[in-house]
């Protein structure tokens, strides 16, 4: 496991995150002490990856309500929580963990008020802080369980390809797609080769996956996204494994742009394609992937090379969808902390998680 810490409650008065926009050049930890800082950190991807966004949102909401007057009215406090949660919910649209965590925090507050007549605002704030910490701790356990289950599936695949970053830096610790690799490493198993797609435009695969695997002492080879087909055609890659930002009730999976292409290439070469995600990434209210909101990000991410050199002339338009949807028919199995789910997904997801 890498020594890099994605997110934790700092020793001071706020949340400590590693600023992922600076990786791999600089490892800088920053303290987030206001909800506005957390909103900005999520929006510009200082903290990123669906589970980490959920954890960040929970702590962010706590930061946004902790200064409310302890002697105020409890109903006003509940409305304040709702309003602050609505604000954070607009930071990014696709990763359902953001909404899941905010709903969980709001429900915690409402339940406390309903069940405890004389609860005071101070106690409610403490409860919200505890819930944020619980979300972080649960994520650790979920990643470990995904790692154990996933390792059983991929242990005979000596060469694995992954896309974007679904590792420790996208979660609290082990990650989802990278968790089986870390668990294998802990058990003394070594994979011959891990290919990381660079993942244009923001290069999460090259900058972040390659960094955390190298930090953990796991050899990794970065390829440009457009090399995945020829690498898979060589017959070296024995399994692909990716994370998810939102999984619909039928198993259609939204993940970083380019994932769908990887799944198509894998299918064309009879390579198993696995999705690894915690139950908090499923959105059973979405019947299929067509309903999943896809974030579109700014022109500059495509039109400038790493925020600097111009790569697209001013006269050309840019389209920058940040995610795509892989149809469930291309997914061999979905690895969750509650076990591995195989097709047919609609029935099996409902049975396992419904
Ligand atoms: O835009 P990002 O970097 O937040 O996108 C991240 C991904 O697409 C990850 O694969 C996904 O969130 C799963 S993280 C365990």
Can you give a write-up of this model?
The chain starts with 6 loop residues before the first strand and ends with a helix. Strand 13 and strand 14 form a beta hairpin. Helix 2 packs antiparallel against helix 3, helix 2 packs antiparallel against helix 5 and helix 4 crosses helix 5. The relative contact order is 0.12. The model has no long low-confidence stretch (mean pLDDT 97). By secondary structure, the protein is of the alpha/beta class. It binds 5-S-methyl-1-O-phosphono-5-thio-D-ribulose. The site of 5-S-methyl-1-O-phosphono-5-thio-D-ribulose has 19 residues, from helix 2 and strand 9.
Task: Detail the topology: elements first, then pairings.
Blueprint: E1 7-9, E2 15-18, E3 29-32, H1 35-43, H2 50-65, H3 74-88, H4 96-115, H5 121-154, E4 159-162, H6 179-186, E5 193-197, H7 204-215, E6 221-223, H8 228-233, E7 239-242, E8 246-248, E9 253-256, H9 259-268, E10 273-276, E11 282-283, H10 300-303, E12 323-326, E13 333-336, E14 339-341, H11 345-353
Parallel strand pairs: 4-5, 4-7, 5-6, 7-10, 8-11, 10-13
Antiparallel strand pairs: 1-2, 2-3, 8-9, 9-12, 13-14
Helix pairs in contact: 1-2, 2-3, 2-4, 2-5, 3-4, 4-5, 5-6
The protein binds 5-S-methyl-1-O-phosphono-5-thio-D-ribulose.
């Amino acid at each position: 496991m890498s020594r890099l810490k994605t997110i934790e409650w700092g020793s001071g008065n706020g949340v400590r995150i590693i600023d992922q926009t600076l990786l791999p050049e600089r490892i800088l930890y920053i303290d987030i002490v206001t909800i506005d800082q957390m909103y900005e950190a999520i929006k510009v991807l200082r903290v990123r990856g669906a589970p980490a966004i959920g954890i960040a949102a929970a702590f962010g909401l706590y930061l946004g309500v902790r200064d409310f007057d302890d002697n105020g009215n409890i109903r006003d406090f509940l409305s304040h929580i709702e309003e602050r949660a609505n604000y954070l919910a607009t930071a990014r649209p696709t990763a359902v963990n953001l909404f899941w965590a905010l709903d969980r925090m709001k429900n915690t507050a409402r339940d406390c008020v309903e069940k405890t007549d004389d609860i005071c605002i101070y106690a409610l704030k403490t409860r919200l802080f505890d819930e944020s910490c619980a979300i972080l701790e649960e994520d650790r356990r979920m990643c470990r369980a995904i790692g154990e289950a996933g390792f059983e599936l991929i242990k005979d695949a000596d060469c694995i390809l992954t896309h974007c970053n679904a590792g420790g830096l996208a979660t609290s610790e082990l990650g989802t797609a990278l968790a089986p690799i870390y668990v294998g490493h802990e058990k003394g198993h070594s994979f011959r080769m891990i290919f990381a797609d660079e993942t244009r435009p923001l290069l999460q695969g090259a900058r972040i996956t390659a960094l955390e695997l190298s930090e953990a002492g796991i050899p990794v080879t970065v390829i440009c996204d457009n090399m995945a087909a020829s690498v898979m055609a060589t017959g070296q890659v024995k399994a692909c494994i990716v994370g998810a930002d939102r999984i619909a009730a039928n198993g259609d999976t939204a993940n970083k742009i380019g994932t769908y292409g990887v799944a198509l290439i894998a299918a064309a070469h009879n390579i198993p394609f696995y999705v690894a995600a915690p139950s908090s990434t499923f959105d059973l209210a979405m019947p299929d992937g067509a309903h999943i909101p896809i974030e579109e990000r700014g022109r500059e991410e495509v039109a400038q090379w790493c925020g600097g050199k111009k790569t697209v002339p001013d006269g050309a338009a840019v389209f920058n969808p940040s995610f795509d949807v892989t149809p469930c028919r291309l997914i061999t199995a979905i690895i969750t902390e509650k076990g591995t789910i195989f097709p047919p997904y609609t029935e099996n997801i409902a049975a396992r998680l419904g």
